C-alpha cells in the first residue's frame, strides 16, 4: 500500500494495530505506533484504543503500565478502551487494579463483566467470580458463552452444584443457545463442573452428546472417572478416544496422567505399566514428575516396593515430597520398615522442610506399625526440634447456598460440639461392629 503511494488513514492503522495485538507482534505494532505519531492519528479514538490494546496484550506490568499511560492521555474514550485496559490488568494478574478500573467505568457491556469473572476464576478468586456473575445476572446483562465457561469453572472449584445445574438449565432452555452451536469449551466446563461435584453420570452424558470434542473434553472425563474411583470407565473412555483416530484430537501429558492415576487407585499394575510406557513410545510424550509419582504410588500400593524404589532412583527428574510420600505409604501398607529407613535417610537430605511434617508423621506410623517405638520417638523428637507441623485437614460444605469451612482440631467452630458428638457416635458404632484402629492411627496424636 505504501509502495503504491496510497495514504493510510485511521481505519488502516486501527486494523494494523489490532492484527499486531492478536498475533502478539509487539515490535511490528511499535513500528505502526511510530507511523501513527508521525502522521498525527493519535487523537483518533479508535487508533488510540487499539494502541492501548496492543500494549495491554503484552501481559507484563511494563506493558500494561504503558497502556495505562496512553489511556490516561485519551481525550475521548469508549467502552472498548476501558475493556482493553481492564483485560491488560487481568492478563498480568493484577485483579485488584482491574476491579478498581471496573468500578470506575462509566459504561459496561458483556465483555466487561466476562473479563472480570474469567479473571477472578483464573486467579483463584472463585467466590468473587461467582459474586460478579450473580451481579451480572441482576444487572440484566445478557449472559454469553464465555461468561458461562468462567462461572462453571468457579462452580467446579467451589463444588457449587446448585449454580452449576442452574447454568446448565439456562443453556438448555434459552432459545439463543438452542439456535447456535455451543462452544466446545462450554461443554468441557460442564463436564468438569459435574465431575468435580461428583455427578459423574451427568458429566458422561454431556460428553456423549457433544457434536465436537477436543483433547480437553476427553481428558476432563477421564480425570473425572479416575478421581471418583471408576478406573475401568476411565480406561474405556481413553480407548474410545484413541479408536476414533482423530489426528487433531490426540492424548497429551494430562490425559495420560488421568489414565495412570486411574490405574494407581484401582491397582491395575500391568495396565499402568503399559500406559506409562505407551505415552513416550507411541506419542513422544515425556513423563513428568506427576506421572512418576502415580507410578510409584501404583507399584507401592501393589507391593512392588523394590521396583518403585528403583524407578525413583532412575527417574530423570529429582523426586519431590509427593514421590517419597507415595513410597512411604506403600511401606506402611506392607510393613516394610527396612525400606522406610532408607527413605528416611533420603528425606533428611532432599525433603523441603516446609513439607516435612506430613511425611515425618507417615514415617512415624510405619515404625509404629512394626512396634519400633524408639524409632517412633526419634521421629517425633525431630518434629519437635524442627518446629514443623502438619497442616490441618480442611473441608467445606455448601448448605442453602452458604459455604461452611471446617479445619481439623478447630474447636472454636460454632458447630464443633455437635460435629465431635456425631463423630464419637460413629466411632462407637464402628467399634461395636468389630472395627479396630491400626496401631499407627491410635498413636498418631501429632497428626
Please supply descriptive tags for the structure shown above.
447 residues; mainly alpha; two-stranded antiparallel sheet; 25 helices; 2 strands
Structure description:
- By secondary structure, this protein is mostly helical.
- Helices cover 69% and strands 3% of the residues.
- The protein has 25 helices and 2 strands.
- It has a two-stranded antiparallel ribbon with strand order 1-2.
- The chain is elongated.
In brief, what are we looking at here?
By secondary structure, the protein is mainly α.
Q: Say how many strands there are.
A: 2
Task: Tell me what portion of residues adopts beta-strand conformation.
Answer: under 5%
Q: Give the ordered list of helices and strands.
A: HHHHHHHHHHHHHHHHHHHHHHHEEHH
Give the overall shape, derived from the CA principal axes: elongated
Low-confidence stretches: 442-447
Major sheet strand order: 1-2
Profile the largest sheet: 2 strands, antiparallel
Q: What gyration radius follows from the Cα positions, in whole Å?
A: 28 Å
Distance between the termini: 73 Å
Question: If helices are DSSP runs of H or I spanning 4 or more residues, what is the number of helices?
Answer: 25
> Whole-number average pLDDT?
85
Percent helix, as a range, is: 55-70%
Structural class: mainly alpha
Any chance you could write out the topology, listing elements then pairs?
Blueprint lengths: L9 H14 L2 H14 L5 H12 L4 H12 L6 H13 L3 H10 L5 H13 L3 H13 L6 H14 L2 H13 L1 H4 L5 H13 L3 H9 L6 H13 L3 H13 L9 H14 L2 H13 L7 H13 L3 H10 L6 H14 L2 H14 L5 H14 L3 H14 L7 E6 L2 E6 L8 H17 L6 H5 L4
